[in-house]
Structures
1.
Amino acid sequence: TAIVKLEDVHLSFGNTQVLKGIDLTVNKGDAVSIIGPSGSGKSTLLRCINALAMPQSGRITVAGTRVDTLTKESERIELRKRVGIVFQQYNLFPHLTVLDNIVLAPTRILGADRTATEKLARELLEKVRLSEKADAYPGQLSGGQQQRVAIARALAMKPELVLFDEVTSALDPETVGEVLWVIRDLIRDGMTSILVTHEMRFAEEISDTVVFTENGRVVAHGSPKEIFHDS
Ligand code: ADP
Ligand code: ADP
């Protein structure tokens, strides 16, 4: 069943058309990779899914909610509680420990129980292979470790799907792998995931569907087998 559906989505910034009629369907439990040249609209497409960008026309449905018609910021915030996003910049709070960075949003924004959330946070730290860093501060961690904390923080909200926007692009090459392995584990666990990435081989390995964008359009769309081995 579809958890994300974009139909003929058009988006412009001023006179610049950035999305020129995007159609995209993502089924629950699937991993979809979006690949394309810089400036082709990948990031904007992703941001449309959690209402960080709003299209001028078209229809966007995410987990049963019509997103393109959410006019109130409060409604968009409600949507974002259910759609996790991880950015290139991890943006952890430097004065909070790793554990407190993860616990903050569920307790403050969702009003989740502190003890239960700490337990969940420790489970998530295990999942991202950082159990021993719970009491460390972000500044004491490598970029790859901080990005894995950012992933755990997104998961602590128990999202229905997670968006990854070039999450390894700012990392030192030697820490890229550890972040990709964590994402691969999540996908294998069945987390619905949409990734904007330049990691072709990773996309080929983990994706159910690969989408190529160019100049605001989807120019190819299919299984990794169809995309990487045909024509
Ligand atoms: P990609 O992720 O494929 O690199 P983006 O979606 O980031 O592409 O950007 C597509 C185009 O839209 C680029 O030309 C970019 O400069 C422009 N753009 C993105 N965000 C904004 C914005 N908030 N305001 C104006 N232009 C933007
Ligand atoms: P990336 O290609 O990695 O997505 P960009 O430089 O395109 O990075 O975008 C970084 C941020 O700046 C995004 O929030 C994007 O929306 C915004 N942005 C990009 N281009 C413009 C622009 N021309 N005017 C205003 N904001 C922009």
Note: The helical segments are 42-49, 73-80, 98-109, 114-127, 143-155, 173-188, 200-206, 224-229.
2.
Amino acid sequence: AVAALTVKDLAGERVLVTAGPTREEIDPVRYISNYSSGKMGYAIARAARRRGAEVTLVAGPTCLADPWGIETVRVTSAAEMYEAVLARLERSTVVIKAAAVADYRPKCKAPGKIKKTDAAMAVELEKNPDILREVGARKGARLVVGFAAETGELVANARKKLLDKQVDLMVANDVSQAGAGFHVDTNIAKFLYPDGRIEELPLMGKNELADLLLDRVTALRQTGAK
Ligand code: CTP
Ligand code: CA
């Protein structure tokens, strides 16, 4: 009943959303990852679907069930997420990159469980591809939304990422703040735009933030800005 009352303002849009962390394997039993729960990205995917969009969700390892009515592609590593996103980029009209992609991966994955010794050990890491940067570089007529997770200098850092990665809207959040970021159901975000505009938002639920973000996406698509 609620779905029937929703304005289908995203009808005709094909929205690609990424969510969750990635996992970079060290050996068959260990990995490097981060605290992302996937809740924000899943909330965006569900809200976009409710508002009439055709949605594809590329998700890293999360505890969340595949959302109803949404093509969900499960990946593990950043390299797999990169492949999955690039393969689906062409047909998308909006890309929203809420995933917390691991910046580095172990240079070699040990084939067997690494045994401990008395010596200290180091794992050599190499850089993962930056998916959002690649999407921004191939943007075309698409609208691209990024997320920036910061623990200080929020606006300056997020603004730099917005320009570097050529995104149209950056959702900046200070993950060191209580009520924002990982695990919790709420977020405190700022929307940053390429023209320097900043919209400061109060503490709100991730579902509410998802709808507010999609309001801005719709507006940007309709003003022909994109
Ligand atoms: N991102 C990505 N691929 C990566 C790293 C990040 O697509 N390899 C995307 C994230 O999904 C997010 C945005 O880039 O939308 C910003 O991620 P963030 O980790 O905040 O910024 P980085 O550019 O990785 O910089 P740093 O971690 O050094 O702050
Ligand atoms: Ca990063």
Note: The first strand starts at residue 14 and ends at 19.
